[in-house]
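Teaching note: in complex prediction, the entire set of molecules is handled at once rather than each chain in isolation. The prompt given to students was simply: 'Predict the structure of this complex.' The entities are:
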Amino acid sequence: MNPAYDFAAPFQDPKGSAIRELFKYLSQPGMISFAGGYPSPALFDTAGLNAAMVAVQSASAADLLQYGSTEGRPQLRAALSALLARRGIAAAPEQMLVTSGSQQGFDMLLRTLIEPGDTAIMTRPVYSAAAQGLRLAGARVVGVATDGAGIDFDELESHLAAGKPHPKFFYCVPTFANPSGDTMPLAQRQRLLELAVRHRLLIVEDDPYGQLRFSGEPLPTLFTLAQDMPGASDWVVHLSSLSKIVAPGLRIGMMLAPPEVLKRCVMAKQISDLCTSPWMQMVAEHYLNAGALERHLHVIVDAYRKRCDTLVAALREELAEAFDFSVPQGGMFIWGEWKHGVDAARVLEHAIKANVMYVPGMSFYTDRANPSALRLSFAMPTVDEIGEGVRRLRRAYESYMGAG
Amino acid sequence: MNPAYDFAAPFQDPKGSAIRELFKYLSQPGMISFAGGYPSPALFDTAGLNAAMVAVQSASAADLLQYGSTEGRPQLRAALSALLARRGIAAAPEQMLVTSGSQQGFDMLLRTLIEPGDTAIMTRPVYSAAAQGLRLAGARVVGVATDGAGIDFDELESHLAAGKPHPKFFYCVPTFANPSGDTMPLAQRQRLLELAVRHRLLIVEDDPYGQLRFSGEPLPTLFTLAQDMPGASDWVVHLSSLSKIVAPGLRIGMMLAPPEVLKRCVMAKQISDLCTSPWMQMVAEHYLNAGALERHLHVIVDAYRKRCDTLVAALREELAEAFDFSVPQGGMFIWGEWKHGVDAARVLEHAIKANVMYVPGMSFYTDRANPSALRLSFAMPTVDEIGEGVRRLRRAYESYMGAG
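The expected output is the structure of the full assembly:
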């Protein structure tokens, strides 16, 4: 008999992550996976990080091993501030909270803003762990369609015109989004900020992929644009991370937020984990201050560009009649859909038999799901694996069509 | 004008921590502080930790730098399981969640159990960051008195007899408590577990100090005792940490919990920070597996014993007429009160002028506070500083009495 624990409502009968359910197939021998959302460990700058690790060995025990300040080490915040400045993001260290990955930044916003029954707006499709966070905080999530042309402002404005309940925030990944790969055009960024000011709508800009650009011109972040629009900087929270440009194992992210929001997120982090590991903060700060990121980042970007180009070419070669997709200008993901209303979860069953994997789009919807959609990550497989993986995808698709 | 953010109710006008307000005085030249809750960095095993850091340099990038599993590395969970086993705590790695300090373990319980308006029971006095966590989760906290003789069962049973609302859990630090230094006697531990089973009351046993014993015989943890009492193991969550026995900078803690609780806490951690740094996990696992903790722990325990003895002797010498306190058998804290109803916050003003600090007890109460109480930590000051610090305390007390 199961003891009758009295869990909070969202945890009483929680749904696990469908993506995590796929993990078990990853260990299938010879599997080629487009499913992961992880960066490629083969591209990590292990030499640069080892040098940073050696450099911190001479630090004092009180700096390295003691509790640190909840806000994060001033030296790391200065290094991150310099990193952001090189991308045109002007943020003083005092505007920044060091977080244990950008996931924790989002979580601090959930803690300080969301009560059960509150509403928040997210793009459709959306990063699944953010949507899951909102669900488990007891929030109602409403979606706003997004595609290669940007977000659907009619839908967004209709949510806002509805008035009550006032949504607590709008969450988006404006640059090389997970899962869609899309980048919000400049005019839309401006319009979104105008809407934020008019409706007193907090915009959560999650930007873990912004530095992974293969093609096209860099666009200013919402955070940057907001500095030049009266009142807008009060309504933008910017989340970022070293996970995709250095390594996730550091668990170093950052939040830029207006003072009243930042102050409360510091309190939320205080009760969450007191501080992010000072040891890892020092490694990150040595790595950044040594200029290692500037020296290494192009290695990651060049590899992802090549993998993306290979995947695009292979999809056009092998699946032109079966699969529609858009080509991203950066990041780690291609989003697309099987034509003719073919169901992505059902094709996946055939794909797993053919030793290739992707994530069905259903995992990335909070409403109005497109069952034909799917996400392909090109970050992990090599160029050779990508070619073979797409040939397997075609066989899986044909097998599904034949079986159907 | 302040933008009208719509924060969650507990964050609308949150009270900062009174303890953190004291931080600014720590940098006063020559200050002797009994105020901190931090372990002494001079006692950290920097050689052992450096060896562990060097050892992990040969690890693969995928192990060290990639995202890890939310549950924690199996190798670290095995090492922690062995560490617990040496203390008589039999817990399989599958019963364990690696957390970013024991603070995060408590936070995962808040996430999965507490909704605004819920009730939880804590000892009075209680660890302030746990109480703050409950407040910021919107919970109502009810206290149960605790002193050298243990917890007040009449008060606890009266809360439980009240029935509705059923308290979500009872939080305590049964061994060398923060702030009281008290250890719950064996008979009380048994009785608490019987109560837990009878009332279906989850017991949260926070045990960061359990290995810091100077005197007396080790007592079994609530987790251990529950294994031998029918039904009891369903109602005990055990939180622990390497922060006080290795170093806080690792940010490595652990939770042992019944399966249904653990499963949900894993989901809560997933949305909180995805995983604890695998790099720090590997350092911890190398440190533990090398036997370094066994070799070094006595250095910490011996130093704390000596500091505690020194503080006890000095308090008896200098402040016998003014200050009542109990002598702990381990941990980092002495709890006491000024006699004659003297206010601890007001004496502190004189103490800061005399260049010595402590934490007024008010920070550790959620109800029915004793304004004369205060906490002295002996972990950080050296033996010489302790003697001088207590002489300053006496001068501060005399100055207060003279001024009053």
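Point out the following to students. The longest strand of chain B covers residues 140-147. Chain B is about 45% helix and 15% strand.
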